[in-house]
C-alpha cells in the first residue's frame, strides 16, 4: 500500500497548503485534466484554475487552485499556485456575485482588449472554479 | 553644577522617553514574532519557483525570451522596500545607501517605493518616484504585490526600463539584518545557472524533465511568477527586518536612557548634598557671628 504513494506538496505564496503522501492526484493543466500516480515521467506544466482532487488512502479531498504550475517527478509532485482553498473556506454567494460582476464587466467592455478584460476574465475563471468545486463537493458529501 | 531643579527636570524628561522606547521595544518584539513566521512561510514558494526557473534555463540553453533580454541604456527601476515609520536604527538608511551607491545617474532612474521613509530619502537625492505603495506594510498580501509585478513586467517589455532591482533588507536573525540589492529583470541567467551547478539549489541539473506544452511556454508563465515571488519574499523579509531593527534600536535606547538616569541621579544627590552643606555652614557661620 505504502509503496504506491508519493509526496504531494501544494505551495502558495503565503504558506505550504498541503504536504503529505498521497496515492493519486487530479488537477487541471493548460492542456486538460491530468491524474498523476507514482512514477510519473518528469513533467513541468502550467495549470489553470480548477479543482484539485487528492486521493490519500480512504478519504478523498477536494480543493480549488488558482493558476500556477506543477512540477511532477517520479516520487514527488510540487504544485505552485497563486492561491488554494478548501471547500469550507469558500463563500458560494460571494463567488456567484463575483461571477455576475465579472460577466457584466466583460459585456460592457465589449471586445476592446485591455487590462480590465484580463482582470475580469481572471476573476471570472476564479469564481467559476470556486462554484464548480463547491457544487461538486456538496454532491460528493451527500 | 546645574541647579537641583534643573537636574530633576531633565531626569523626568529622560524617564518618560525611556518609557516610550521600552514600550516600542515590546511592541516590536511582539510584531517580530509574527513577521518572522510569515517570512518563513513565504520562503518555500520562492525557493521552488527559483529552482524551476533555474532548471529550465540550465537544461535548455539558447532560449530566447523578451524577459531575458539584456539592454543597457541606464534606465533602471528600483523597488525600494523600507518602513513607514522611523526609530528603527539604520534600517532605512542602509537600504537607501545601497541604492545611492549603485545608481550613478539618479535623474534617469525610477523608484517604486514601498515605505514612506525610502521615498522621502530618495526623493531628496533626485530620484523620481514612479509609484508609491505604502499601505501594504500593514497587511502584506500577495494580491497587490502581484499587480505591482505585472506593472513592472509591462514596463520592462515596453522598454520603459532596462533593469529592475529590488532593494530590501534580508532577515538573518532577530539581531542581524542585511540590506541587499537584487536584480530581478532581466533575469540573471548566468547567476541562476551557476547557483544550480554549484549545488546551491537541491536539484540535480542533469535530471531529465519534460515541459508541457513547451519549455518556452512554461518559462513564459514561470518568470512572472518568479518576479512576483521575489517581490513578495523581499517584502516579508523586510517587514521582519524592520521589527528586528527597531527592537535592537529601542533596546539600546532604553539602556542609554538608564545610563543617563543613573548619572543624573548621582548629580542630583551631589547637588542636594552641596545645598545641605552650604545651608549648615551658613547657619553655623550666622551663630558664630552672634557671639
Automatic annotation (TrEMBL), chain A:
Keywords: ATP synthesis, Cell membrane, CF(1), Hydrogen ion transport, Ion transport, Membrane, Transport
Domain ATP synthase epsilon subunit C-terminal: 88-134
Domain ATP synthase F1 complex delta/epsilon subunit N-terminal: 6-84
Keyword Ion transport: yes
InterPro entries on file: ATP_F1_dsu/esu_C_sf, ATP_synth_F1_dsu/esu, ATP_synth_F1_dsu/esu_N, ATP_synth_F1_esu_C, ATPsynth_dsu/esu_N
Membrane protein topology class: Peripheral membrane protein
Self-association state and partner proteins as the record states: F-type ATPases have 2 components, CF(1) - the catalytic core - and CF(0) - the membrane proton channel. CF(1) has five subunits: alpha(3), beta(3), gamma(1), delta(1), epsilon(1). CF(0) has three main subunits: a, b and c.
Name recorded for this polypeptide: ATP synthase epsilon chain
Organism: Anaerotalea alkaliphila
TrEMBL record, chain B:
Subcellular location: Cell membrane; Membrane
Membrane topology: Peripheral membrane protein
One Pfam short name: ATP-synt
Keyword Cell membrane set for record: yes
CDD domains reported for this sequence: F1-ATPase_gamma (cd12151)
GO CC annotation terms, alphabetical: plasma membrane; proton-transporting ATP synthase complex
GO BP, sorted A to Z: proton motive force-driven plasma membrane ATP synthesis
A single GO molecular function term of this UniProt record: ATP binding
Keywords: ATP synthesis, Cell membrane, CF(1), Hydrogen ion transport, Ion transport, Membrane, Transport
InterPro entries linked: ATP_synth_F1_ATPase_gsu, ATP_synth_F1_gsu, ATP_synth_F1_gsu_CS
Oligomeric and partner information: F-type ATPases have 2 components, CF(1) - the catalytic core - and CF(0) - the membrane proton channel. CF(1) has five subunits: alpha(3), beta(3), gamma(1), delta(1), epsilon(1). CF(0) has three main subunits: a, b and c.
Function: Produces ATP from ADP in the presence of a proton gradient across the membrane. The gamma chain is believed to be important in regulating ATPase activity and the flow of protons through the CF(0) complex.
HAMAP family in the record: ATP_synth_gamma_bact
Family assignment from sequence similarity: Belongs to the ATPase gamma chain family.
Protein name stated in the entry: ATP synthase gamma chain
Species assigned in the record: Anaerotalea alkaliphila
Amino acid at each position: 500500500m505504502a509503496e504506491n504513494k508519493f509526496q504531494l506538496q501544494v505551495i502558495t505564496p503565503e504558506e505550504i497548503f498541503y504536504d503529505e503522501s498521497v496515492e493519486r492526484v487530479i488537477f487541471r493543466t493548460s492542456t486538460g485534466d491530468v491524474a498523476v500516480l507514482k512514477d510519473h515521467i518528469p513533467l513541468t506544466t502550467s495549470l489553470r484554475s480548477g479543482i484539485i482532487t487528492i486521493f490519500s488512502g480512504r478519504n478523498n479531498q477536494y480543493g480549488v487552485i488558482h493558476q500556477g504550475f506543477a512540477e511532477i517527478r517520479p516520487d514527488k509532485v510540487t504544485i505552485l499556485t497563486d492561491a488554494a482553498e478548501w471547500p469550507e473556506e469558500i463563500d458560494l454567494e460571494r463567488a456567484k456575485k463575483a461571477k455576475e460582476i465579472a460577466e457584466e464587466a466583460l459585456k460592457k467592455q465589449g471586445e476592446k482588449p485591455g487590462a480590465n478584460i484580463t482582470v475580469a476574465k481572471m476573476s471570472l475563471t476564479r469564481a467559476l472554479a470556486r462554484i464548480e468545486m463547491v457544487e461538486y463537493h456538496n454532491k460528493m458529501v451527500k | 553644577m546645574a541647579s537641583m531643579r534643573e537636574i530633576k527636570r531633565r531626569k523626568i524628561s529622560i524617564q518618560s522617553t525611556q518609557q516610550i522606547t521600552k514600550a516600542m521595544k515590546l511592541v516590536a518584539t511582539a510584531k517580530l514574532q509574527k513577521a518572522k513566521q510569515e517570512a518563513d512561510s513565504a520562503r518555500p514558494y520562492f525557493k521552488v519557483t527559483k529552482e524551476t526557473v533555474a532548471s529550465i534555463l540550465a537544461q535548455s540553453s539558447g532560449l530566447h525570451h523578451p524577459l531575458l533580454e539584456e539592454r543597457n541604456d541606464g534606465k533602471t527601476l528600483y523597488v525600494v522596500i523600507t518602513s513607514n515609520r522611523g526609530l528603527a536604527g539604520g534600517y532605512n538608511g542602509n537600504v537607501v545607501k545601497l541604492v545611492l551607491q549603485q545608481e550613478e545617474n539618479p535623474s534617469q532612474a525610477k523608484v517604486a517605493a514601498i515605505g514612506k521613509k525610502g521615498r522621502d530619502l530618495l526623493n531628496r537625492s533626485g530620484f523620481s518616484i514612479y509609484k508609491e505603495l505604502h499601505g501594504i506594510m500593514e497587511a502584506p498580501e500577495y494580491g497587490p504585490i502581484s499587480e505591482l509585478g505585472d506593472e513592472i513586467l509591462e514596463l520592462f517589455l515596453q522598454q520603459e526600463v532596462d533593469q529592475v532591482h529590488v532593494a530590501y533588507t534580508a532577515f538573518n536573525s532577530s539581531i542581524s539584518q542585511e540590506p541587499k540589492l537584487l536584480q530581478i529583470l532581466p533575469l540573471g541567467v548566468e547567476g541562476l545557472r551557476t547557483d544550480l551547478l554549484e549545488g546551491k539549489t537541491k536539484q540535480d541539473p542533469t535530471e531529465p524533465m519534460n515541459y508541457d506544452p513547451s519549455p518556452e511556454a512554461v518559462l513564459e508563465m514561470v518568470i512572472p511568477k518568479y518576479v512576483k515571488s521575489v517581490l513578495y519574499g523581499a517584502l516579508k523579509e523586510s517587514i521582519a527586518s524592520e521589527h528586528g531593527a527597531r527592537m535592537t534600536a529601542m533596546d539600546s535606547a532604553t539602556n542609554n536612557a538608564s545610563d543617563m538616569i543613573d548619572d543624573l541621579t548621582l548629580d542630583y544627590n551631589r547637588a542636594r548634598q552641596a545645598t545641605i552643606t552650604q545651608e549648615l555652614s551658613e547657619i553655623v557661620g550666622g551663630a558664630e557671628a552672634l557671639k
